[in-house]
Structure formats: C-alpha cells, structure tokens
Amino acid sequence: MYSNPPPRPPGPPLFGPWHCVGVCALALGLGIFIAAVFPVGALMFLVAFLLIFCGIGCLRRF
C-alpha cells in the first residue's frame, strides 16, 4: 500500500545536529573578535579564533 521513500543522495546533510552549535560558535567568535579589536587583551584574540575555527569546523563536518 505504501511505497518506500526514495533513497537519500550521498553526502553530508544540509542541517546536521551540530549545525546550531556551529552557527552559535561562529557568531560568538566573530563578536568577540570585533570586541577584541579594541585593546582588551591577547587572550580574547585566541578565544575568538578558537571559536571561529570550531564554528567553521562544525558547519563543515556536520
């Protein structure tokens, strides 16, 4: 009576379970990066780059 759904094409899904985490980390990292342009400290610079790269990694991987 019911037919099987068509198979999904291979490849990563468009919105995986970690997509929201990636977007939030990317946004938070960019916000801290903008705030770190003003003389706040080098630690915020490192945290901003870490969050930006983690966000990009989550968006690409998941």
Describe this structure in words.
By secondary structure, this protein is an all-alpha fold. It has helices at residues 19-36, 42-61. Helix 1 runs antiparallel to helix 2. The longest helix has 20 residues, at 42-61. It is built from 2 helices and no strands.
The helix content, as a percent range, equals: 55-70%
Which strand-content bin applies to the residues?
under 5%
- N-to-C series of helices and strands: HH
Write down the overall mean pLDDT: 74
Structural class: mainly alpha
Question: Main β-sheet: number of strands, strand sense, barrel status?
Answer: none
What low-confidence regions span 5 or more consecutive residues with pLDDT below 50? none
Number of DSSP strand runs: 0
Determine Rg (CA atoms, Å). 18 Å
Number of helices: 2
**N- to C-terminal distance:** 35 Å
How would you describe the shape? rod-shaped
Summarize the structure.
The chain has 62 residues and is mainly alpha-helical. It has two helices and no strands.
Task: Please render the helix and strand layout as text.
Elements: H1 19-36, H2 42-61
Helix pairs in contact: 1-2
Keywords:
62 residues; mainly alpha; 2 helices; 61% helix
